[in-house]
UniProtKB/TrEMBL annotation:
Keywords: Glycosyltransferase, Transferase. Pfam families: Glycos_trans_3N. The lineage of its organism: Bacteria, Pseudomonadati, Pseudomonadota, Gammaproteobacteria, Alteromonadales. InterPro entries: Anthranilate_Pribosyl_Tfrase, Glycosyl_Trfase_fam3_N_dom, Glycosyl_Trfase_fam3_N_dom_sf, Nuc_phospho_transferase. This is Glycosyl transferase family 3 N-terminal domain-containing protein.
């Protein structure tokens, strides 16, 4: 059982001259063995860190994603959201204002599936922590998620409920001191096979890699961009390249600067500040421009409209929100 996997380690680990990247088929079988726990801990660590050292190719990521999706329980596919959003980075400089953009969508007839994970000791504020305070209680079963999606138009499921084996790999950061390809795979997972999905990334050129992967799944319309801290949040303090993939082809759209000036780092990271802004009782220099820019980017994906129209709609929808109720 263990010998075949050592061949995959040899393929990527022989060095600059002797090694090569995995084919899509090899990557699929290798990741399937990792997720099925058919490798030793040493083998898993060596494989993941060798990939980390030279970075995964789009072809390898596609094979890994194929393996991940195959292992998702069929019951998950009974959830039928319009939009899938992975929330895996966690915020460390600003609050997760993109969640209020999601709330606006949910309150206007869009059904949204959120999923994410958290890394122990990261010091980041994850969506799973903020959402209950914003009015979306935690659920841990597919049945409860389905009911929540019907009642509120949005649900959040932790990766530990969707694909526990991948969640285990993400949490190995505490052991390695480094993230692995699992963080990329989780963002690309789209576990319910929703028609539309959003992927926020952090590092330069990762958005290009995501595009190459998204192009291999033409039935899904995908939006990828370098979000604040790596989460699916557009920072309106700078231009953001939105990469939208439809029918296997990617186009680039520029979300312009909408902020008048730069905001300082949020020292408190208090979710109650988000509730105050939603209720109209307070202003946030960073938060409100992030909500509008993020909401507009989602609308560009969902409605196939141009940026100017999306920004206009975002401002209108934000102004019309129900300030007397909680966001979710």
């Amino acid at each position: 059982m263990l010998q075949p996997f050592s061949e995959y380690i040899k393929i990527i680990g022989k060095g600059q001259k002797g090694g090569r990247s995995l084919t899509r088929d090899e990557a699929y079988h290798a990741m399937k063995m990792v997720l099925a726990n058919e490798v030793t801990g040493d083998q898993r660590g060596a494989f993941l860190m060798l990939l980390r050292t030279r970075e995964e190719t789009p072809e390898e990521v596609i094979g890994f994603v194929d393996a991940c999706r195959e292992l998702i329980e069929p019951e998950v596919k009974t959830l039928t959201p319009t939009l899938d959003i992975g929330c895996y980075a966690g915020k460390r400089r600003q609050l997760p204002w993109y969640l209020l953009a999601v709330a606006v969508l949910a309150n206007n007839g869009y059904s949204v599936m959120l999923h994410g994970a958290h890394e122990p000791g990261s010091g980041r504020l994850y969506a799973s922590i903020a959402l209950p305070q914003l009015g979306l209680p935690e659920v841990s079963s597919i049945a409860d998620a389905k009911q929540q999606l019907m009642d509120k138009g949005v649900t959040y499921l932790d990766l530990s409920s969707l694909l526990p084996a991948l969640d285990t790999i993400i949490k190995l950061r505490e052991v390695f001191g480094l993230r692995s390809c699992a963080n990329t795979l989780a963002r690309l997972l789209n576990p319910t096979a929703a028609q539309f999905c959003v992927q926020g990334v952090y590092h330069m050129h990762l958005d290009h890699k995501h595009c190459r992967v998204n192009e291999n799944y033409p039935s899904i319309d995908a939006l990828c961009f370098r979000g604040d801290g790596g989460d699916p949040e557009v920072n309106g303090e700078r231009e953001t390249e939105l990469f939208i993939t439809r029918n296997g082809e990617t186009e680039e759209v520029i979300m312009p600067v909408v902020a008048d000036k730069w905001a300082l780092k949020d020292k408190d990271m208090n979710v109650n500040d988000m509730l105050d802004v939603w209720a109209g009782n307070a202003n946030s220099l960073y938060g409100e421009q992030a909500i509008l820019s993020t909401l507009a980017s989602y609308l560009v994906l969902l409605q196939k409209c141009d940026v100017a129209d999306a920004l206009s709609q975002a401002r209108q929808l934000w102004a019309q929100r129900d300030k007397s109720a909680t966001p979710f």
